[in-house]
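Q: I'm writing up a methods section and want to include an example of the input and output format. Could you take the sequence below and give the corresponding predicted structure tokens, formatted cleanly so I can copy it straight into the document?
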Amino acid sequence: MTRRFVVALLCGLTLAALPHLSRAVAGDPAVDQVQALTSALLKSMHKGPAASMVARYRDLEPVIEQVFALPLMTRLSVGQDWGKFSPGAQTAVIAAFSRYTITNYAHNFRDFDGQKFQTDPNVLIRGEDKVVRTQLISADGTAVSLLYRMREVDGVWKIIDVYYNGISQLTLHRVDFAGAVASGGAPVLIAYLNRVSDGLM
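A: Here is the clean output for your methods example:
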């Protein structure tokens, strides 16, 4: 079974559940979190590629740590092997995954050409989670759909997954990280995450 087939299958299964949603009232705190993220990303984009990756990373780091449930996302991305990691290894993997996440956002949102974010104020409910819908709209009107799946962590709504044009990033992480975990556990996964981050910096 190829990696591409596995990704397509898992994403299809995940997306199949999304239509079964109920609607929440507007003015939800989950929306405020997403808007804090999109505002920070737009600010980063306005600075353009002339801004260094180090500066861009530094600007985005506190916002991403505020709005993403990075420890939970790390555990969900690793999957069932998470319990096999020692507490020290778990802490190190969370740190590497956090750096990996922030670096990817700093790298991917570095150009501005008239784009804007448009967030639907009406939150959707799926079990214990909420879904906030956003579009990244280009100057020519082309829109990219972003769905933020959120969960309440210590009284704060935080992002646990992002669907980019219908594809779950959490699902992609699980598939992507599986090889590293299988070949050498936490040390190999940490090395992989750091290698990717170093390459983008």
